[in-house]
Amino acid sequence: MEVLYACCEHVEVAIDDYVNEKEEAPQITKVQNQKCCYCKEDAEYEIK
Fold it and tell me: 10, 26, 33, 41 — which has fewest CB within 10 A?
């Protein structure tokens, strides 16, 4: 997992998944034109 994209509903889950795998704090930025990894709605955040 390098980058996760998440909508506002799934951003907390994405952060948890990132931290559980990488064991470090992610960088979170606002994005457009991406789809959420969890529900395929428009993503608002990139977690990397």
Answer: 33
